[in-house]
């Protein structure tokens, strides 16, 4: 399967082109430009470097979240447009699952966490490639309480790890381990690996973002409605 992979769910913008499990090209950018500025030029460059046209692909894989609301929307909307133009299916990829694959081999519980702000994380837990906990948006303390019975060694990675590192260390002590910076971000090739081993396929119309909680704009609208005000 020839696959284009797109990820804009976190601080890193990434794209990869894969031929089955072989990575033909992978581009990653973390700079002052926005994902909307980086993504399309990176995608075009990746396809050119891989020697493939969009019409030669079999599918477009998109990381659908959880993560940054704006970032996820950019990636999903781009994947939908490219898949529609090429007439090929989409493969949704879970950000936390792909992050866990980025950790490599670890004899313990892999805990990918994304910073959800306001003291919350988007978190999940995996061991030996098996999911131990579904994706959830939780206060950090709640997440740590949830995973504590799952083992005695925990590896944390993701953009939420540097933010909450000291709090995690205080809670778990020596049971907590932290991935180095070069393993902490989601690699698009890891998302591609997850896509290749997924049975899920959808058309561009049904590719949907996964937010886990409503965006702040939606919360504010509901609050104004509850106060009897008419949000515009």
Mind explaining what this structure looks like?
The protein folds into two domains: 2-95 and 187-220, ATPase, nucleotide binding domain (Nucleotidyltransferase, domain 5), CATH 3.30.420.40; 104-178, Nucleotidyltransferase, domain 5. Helix content is 36%, strand content 28%. It contains seven helices and ten strands. The protein has helices at residues 35-50, 69-86, 95-102, 140-147, 160-172, 188-196, 216-226, and strands spanning 2-7, 13-19, 22-29, 59-63, 90-93, 109-117, 120-127, 130-139, 154-157, 176-178. The termini are far apart.
Q: Can you identify the CATH class of the largest domain? A: Alpha Beta
How many domain units? 2
CATH architecture of the largest domain: 2-Layer Sandwich
Low-confidence stretches: 216-229
Mean pLDDT: 91
Count of DSSP H/I helices: 7
Tell me about the largest β-sheet: 5 strands, mixed
Please state the overall shape, judged from the principal axes of the Cα atoms.
elongated
Strand order of the largest sheet: 3-2-1-4-5
Total strand count, please?
Answer: 10
The run of helices and strands is EEEHEHEHEEEHEHEHH
Oligomerization category of the chains in this entry: single chain
| CATH homologous superfamily designation of the largest domain | ATPase, nucleotide binding domain
* Structural class estimated from helices and strands: alpha/beta
């Amino acid at each position: 399967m020839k696959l284009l992979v797109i990820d804009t769910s976190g601080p890193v913008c990434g794209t990869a082109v894969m031929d089955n499990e072989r990575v033909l090209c992978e581009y990653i950018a973390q700079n002052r430009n926005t994902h909307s500025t980086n993504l399309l030029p990176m995608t075009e460059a990746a396809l050119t470097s891989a020697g493939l046209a969009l019409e030669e692909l079999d599918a477009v894989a998109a990381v659908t979240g959880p993560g940054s609301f704006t970032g996820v929307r950019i990636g999903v909307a781009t994947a939908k447009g490219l898949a529609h133009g090429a007439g090929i299916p989409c493969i949704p990829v879970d950000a936390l699952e792909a992050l866990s694959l980025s950790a490599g081999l670890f004899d313990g519980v892999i805990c990918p966490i994304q910073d959800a702000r306001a003291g919350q994380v988007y978190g999940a837990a995996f061991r030996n490639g098996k999911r131990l906990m579904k994706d959830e948006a939780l206060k950090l303390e709640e997440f740590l309480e949830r995973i504590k019975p799952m083992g005695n060694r925990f590896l944390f990675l993701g953009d939420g790890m540097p933010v909450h590192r000291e709090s995690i260390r205080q809670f778990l002590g020596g049971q907590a381990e932290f991935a180095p910076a070069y393993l902490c971000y989601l690699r698009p090739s890891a998302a591609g690996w997850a896509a290749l081993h997924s049975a899920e396929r959808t058309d561009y119309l049904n590719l949907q973002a996964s937010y886990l909680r409503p965006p702040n704009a939606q919360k504010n609208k509901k609050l104004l409605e509850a106060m009897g005000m008419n949000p515009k």
